[in-house]
Amino acid sequence: MNSAKIDFISELLSRKDIHVSEKESLFALTKEELKKMGKDDAEKIADILKRIEKLEGEKNNSEFSGLDGGIKKVEKNRPHRPKETKSFLSLFNNSDGIKYLTHKFKSEKPEYVDFINLCKREFEENKEKYPNTAEKLLSRIKEFAFSEKPDWFIRKGKEREYKHKGWSESSFVEWYKQPVNTHPGWDAKWNEEMIIPFKESIEVRAGNLYSIIEQSLKIAMGESINNFDIEQIINNKNNLNTAEFYTDVDLFQQALFLVFSMINERSKKNLEFGISVDYENETLAGGDFKKVIITHINSEATKKANDPEFVKGDFHSIITNLWGLCNYEINAKFPDGYYKKIFLTDNFFEYRNYVSINKAILIDDISKVTGFTHIFKFY
After folding, report:
1. How far apart are CA 268 and CA 254, in angstroms?
2. Residue 280, phi then psi, degrees to nearest 5
3. If pLDDT is split at 50, 70 and 90, which confidence band does 182 have?
4. Is there a contact between 347 and 286 (Cβ–Cβ < 8 Å)?
């Protein structure tokens, strides 16, 4: 990091149009690097670090203004940190305790109290380590693992299907303590009623994305689905089903429903009925992303790119649903040109360019814009 970069950071800290939570996101990635710098810029670095520490103390009481100024959200609980959500949920793949709530034990079945206490310790330790994990996911995990009267749900079409089974529910505890029983994943009843539904509520698992897309599309479109050309989606089934990423599947489905509902409504005016859905992995500076890309083919935006009224209604609801889960942006042809608009991001490198322009980002290669496109970026 050279002197010019240090000056850039210092300048951003002084700007009034960048809110506390946004600044904190930017500089969290540079703090450790600043500490390693040499003596030449020691005074500047010391000042920056002091100001960053002040920001860290203020972040929980800050007001977030959406990147285009169209969203107002008081940070009563957590800023948007989808990487922390992913890291917390990764405990179900790599940990000493929580992993085995959904995976079969590698060796002998542990004593019940010891195992649950280990899971509780890991849960609390990682809540502190990843304090911005999406709140509803934390609540679902607590119900599944630690509630004596569990009450969590999965989505079946338009309805929530509530589950009252979990690791601390009395009938399960009694079953587990029987010497002949090992892990619920080996038992047909508990696996079907408890383990698989929970897994599918916290992760888009391999083989599942197409059915999630299909279900959301059918519900949003209703009888209008017969008007649409969805052949591309069907042909892309195998690719979609390679997707694997952690998230709150219920809230992701709700966001998909809103996107497809918006496409349905817009099609009644512009008579464009082509939809494509793609999935791809992408490595960018700042992170590896799993991208779900939905395009209303040949559709265009009706408001100018920087219209302050752009983010209302369904867009606001989509952003609310995706808060803490993934980054979200759109690409489209607007009345004033081809632009990208970023609604949710924690990616410093992407965001740095965004700050310099402040609002919509002009797209240079317009050949890639085939319609009004929604892009969800999961870690």
Report:
1. 22
2. -155, 155
3. very high
4. yes
Residues 6+ apart with CB under 8 A from 210: 233, 237, 240, 241
The candidate with the shortest Cα–Cα distance to 289, out of 82, 140, 112, is 82
Q: Which two tokens stand for residue 201?
A: 């509520």
Burial class (CB in 10 A: 0-12, 13-18, 19+), 356: exposed
Q: How far apart are CA 151 and CA 156, in angstroms?
A: 16
* Structure confidence at residue 157 (pLDDT): 79
Q: Do 202 and 89 form a contact (C-beta atoms < 8 A)?
A: yes
Report the length, in residues, of the chain. 379
In sequence order, which residues have a C-beta less than 8 Å from that of residue 360 and are 6 or more positions away? 68, 305, 306, 334, 339, 340, 341
Alpha-carbon torsion, ordered 193, 194, 200, 206, to 10 deg: -80
Token duo for residue 261: 């509902």
Closest by CA position to 289, among listed 255, 315, 331, 325? 325
For 52-96, what is each residue's pLDDT tens digit?
555 544 443 333 333 333 334 433 457 899 999 999 999 999 999
From the CB of residue 9, how many other CB atoms can be counted at a distance below 10 Å? 20
**SS3 call for 341:** strand
Helix (H, G, I), strand (E, B) or coil at 71: coil
At a CB cut-off of 8 Å and minimum separation 6, what does 281 contact?
A: 288, 289, 290, 291
Distances (CA, A) of 164 to 15, 139, 140: 50, 14, 11
Identify the residue with better confidence: 38 or 258: 258
Output phi, psi for 161, to 5 deg. Answer: -105, 110
For residue 310, the model assigns a pLDDT of: 80
CA 145/CA 194 separation, integer angstroms? 11
